[in-house]
Task: inverse folding
């Protein structure tokens, strides 16, 4: 499309977005008389236009990236899923940061049947990424864009429950300003008492927690009700049952599920690539591989305390303003731990993260 035509097109798109829905519908009915508009579905999310230019027909659509691999992007549009590549100009930005990731809303142009080019990436509302804000010399490792909810799955057994790992995930969510809910999976392998005991410190500090089992069906309805109308990411260590959970909620997904490696009790990364799955109820869910490199991820020490929400009432109460709550005198956090207001387990997690321990 030449520059002149592009400007006219942009103006046209802008004008169309301002139109009330009924007008778009009217256009649809009378498209014979308005050859520029072929179809328009939703004012906010998706829609598409056919615009006549001297070179022919160009469709510009808004779509959502469902999958990304080796420079290819699978974009869900009003007209099906297109396999897309980035326009050259975007590729140059890509080298500095991830320009397009799953969850992104993008503007695409059809280049041939089933294939398109990503022209622009819309601004993200939120992001789930591994690299701390403010850390230098790192390319931001963005996992999913426009996330509304992170479902952190921890197994109550097989692999053994480790609060440390859960705390790391919660820290990442807090650092990305994302709501996190905790699913304690494989409840069929432990007693109800054990499950309640494991989750108690998290429930106490206001996290929504849910025990779940794909065998007994416990918790599935509750988790299913979290999903409509938002983008959720299911995350957690390999082998905890993330893909199993999604299959149990929606068997049509048929995600591959693997046995937990018995030698290492670590899982073996059955899911190798994050993908966003449209659920058909306005909701999307991303199944992610267990984050293997999570140990490498680090955030600055002075920001660590903000990832522990129960510390918040005490921050600023310590004698030293730069207190790291380790062995400084008159530390409000340590006092709160001693009096039982802050859980010992969580405090230990904090100390280990502070020490950079794996
Ligand atoms: N007993 C029991 N086993 C479960 C449950 N959920 C999952 N599993 C088993 O746990 C193993 C791992 O499940 P997956 O769903 O592949 O785990 P994942 O978290 O997706 O693992 P990655 O894709 O490697 O990150 C499989 O053998 C499942 O059958 C559960 O509720 N109870
Ligand atoms: Mg999986
Ligand atoms: Zn302190």
Result:
């Amino acid at each position: 499309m030449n520059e002149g035509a592009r400007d006219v097109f942009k103006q046209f798109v802008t004008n169309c977005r301002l139109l009330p829905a009924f007008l778009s519908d009217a256009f649809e009915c009378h498209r014979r008389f308005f050859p520029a508009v072929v179809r328009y579905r939703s004012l906010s999310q998706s829609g598409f236009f056919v615009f006549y230019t001297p070179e022919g027909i160009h469709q510009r659509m808004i779509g959502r990236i469902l999958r990304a691999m080796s420079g290819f992007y699978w974009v869900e549009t009003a007209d099906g899923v297109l396999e897309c590549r980035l326009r050259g100009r975007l590729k140059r930005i890509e080298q500095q940061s991830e320009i397009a990731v799953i969850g992104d809303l993008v503007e695409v142009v059809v280049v041939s049947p089933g294939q398109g080019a990503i022209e622009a990436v819309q601004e993200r509302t939120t992001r789930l990424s591994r690299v701390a804000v403010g850390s230098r010399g790192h390319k931001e490792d963005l996992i999913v864009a426009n996330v509304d909810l992170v479902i952190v799955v921890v197994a109550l057994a097989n692999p053994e429950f480790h609060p440390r790992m859960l705390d790391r995930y919660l820290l990442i969510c807090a650092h990305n300003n994302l709501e996190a809910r905790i699913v304690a999976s494989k409840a069929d392998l432990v007693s109800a008492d054990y499950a309640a005991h494991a989750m108690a410190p998290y429930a106490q500090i206001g996290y929504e927690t849910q025990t779940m089992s794909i065998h007994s069906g416990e918790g599935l309805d509750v988790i299913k009700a979290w999903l409509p109308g938002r983008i959720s990411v299911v995350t957690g260590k390999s082998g905890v049952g993330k893909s199993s959970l999604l299959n149990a909620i929606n068997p049509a997904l048929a995600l591959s599920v693997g046995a937990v490696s018995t030698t290492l009790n670590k899982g073996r990364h059955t899911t190798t690539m994050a993908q966003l799955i449209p659920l058909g109820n306005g909701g999307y869910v991303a199944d992610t591989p267990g984050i293997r490199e999570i140990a490498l991820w680090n955030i600055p020490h002075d920001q660590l305390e903000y990832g522990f929400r129960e510390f918040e009432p005490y921050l600023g109460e310590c004698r030293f303003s730069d207190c790291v709550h380790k062995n400084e005198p008159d530390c409000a956090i340590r006092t709160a731990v001693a009096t039982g207001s802050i859980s010992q387990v969580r405090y230990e997690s904090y100390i280990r993260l502070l020490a950079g321990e794996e």
About this structure: The radius of gyration is 24 Å. The chain has a mean pLDDT of 80.
